Amino acid sequence: MTVAVETGLWQLDATASTVGIRHKTMWGLVTVKGGFGALNGTGEVRPDGSAVGTLTFDVASLDTGNAKRDTHLRSADFFDADHHPEITFAARSAELRDGDQVHVVGQLTVRGISRPLSLTARLTDGDATGLTLDTEFSVDRDQFGLGWNQLGMIRGRTTVTAALRFVRTTG
């Protein structure tokens, strides 16, 4: 599938977008899943077809289905939401390649710590008014100061999944 994406400014449709995380805990026996309820984002598709943009996730909106765990995740042991209320991904370049594959290079900032991040997303149902990007990638939480690990229960990388719906706002 080859999709032509219109140039101009695009806005994240938060009601039609999801960002989730999953991580194995309890020595790999339990998978904790959660999602961010409050998302925001903008992007620009340039005349050459490349794109840039920014996504933000409200840390306090993370819901894993367990209020006690969610409170702990917002604490200084993990995301430190009082001092770092947002997670930000700044896409420095996004290029459509191989039909529906979008190569994205950017910077992820968690807890005030920024690290480079490259990923591949799949462009789905794109047209002149809207498009959706689907991606899954993993991050090492230790790189972002999320090293709390009582009794060695939490190991490995955190998987992030996202389905991001953008609508065109201007030409």
Automatic annotation (TrEMBL):
Read off the InterPro entries from this record. Lipid/polyisoprenoid-bd_YceI (IPR007372), TTHA0802/YceI-like_sf (IPR036761)
Pfam families associated with the record: YceI
**Domain Lipid/polyisoprenoid-binding YceI-like stretches:** 9-167
Query: At the top level of its lineage, which domain of life is listed?
Result: Bacteria
Similarity annotation: Belongs to the UPF0312 family.
Q: What is this protein called?
A: YceI family protein
